[in-house]
């Protein structure tokens, strides 16, 4: 029987926020201080331009700061890219990799994601690897197959030597206000758990499986109470401290 895993509530700010957005981070810090001990870990992944300042603002609080992507190389002639080492140096502890928007907008393959995972681990970052099917793939009955292939190809073989964090984000639910029904979420998370246990053993049992895709204060409780859901990757609702805090406290 799976032991109780401490949930992770992660906020992905995407390409949103300038320095003024750090006031929301400061407000969240205050809310968490007033709440006292909480039952989940908290992570915010702002744009790369804010990581260093966010880490400074979050100091002394339970809030950790992450990046939204990294390059597979440590350094080199890669204009506009940011390496995992740079993220770590800026104050990041985690990094989101393989998000569907990266896969779609930048043509990232699962093999590329795997290389980035290895770079993140080498730099001391904890990767959060995203997987998920499109609406067409779900309608074709291929959701389980697509996610299985993404897991197999996005996770390097030595991933089981560290904390495994996978975020299931059905592409058709991201930013649309639509979410799968609870039964569909439970089925997919059980599917992922079985695949990870088969490949990584005990590390698969201890993996954190996050759900992402239009997570909001009014649906977070039901989602987070679902079997094998060990947290959430939150988009728009993480931009506002009050909304994000409402999700954190129901975990």
Please tell me about this protein's structure.
With 251 residues, the chain is an alpha/beta fold. It has a single domain, classed as TIM Barrel. 42% of the residues lie in helices and 15% in strands. It has eleven helices and eight strands. Helix 1 (22-35) runs parallel beside helix 11 and helix 7 (143-154) runs parallel beside helix 8.
- Average residue-wise pLDDT: 95
N- and C-termini, Cα separation: 20 Å
Low-confidence sequence ranges: none
| Total domain units | 1
Q: What's the architecture in CATH terms?
A: Alpha-Beta Barrel
Give the SSE layout.
Elements: E1 8-12, H1 22-35, E2 41-45, H2 51-58, E3 63-67, H3 84-90, E4 94-97, H4 100-105, H5 110-123, E5 126-131, H6 135-139, H7 143-154, E6 165-168, H8 182-200, H9 202-205, E7 208-212, H10 217-224, E8 231-234, H11 241-248
Parallel strand pairs: 1-2, 1-8, 2-3, 3-4, 4-5, 5-6, 6-7, 7-8
Helix pairs in contact: 1-2, 1-11, 5-7, 7-8, 10-11
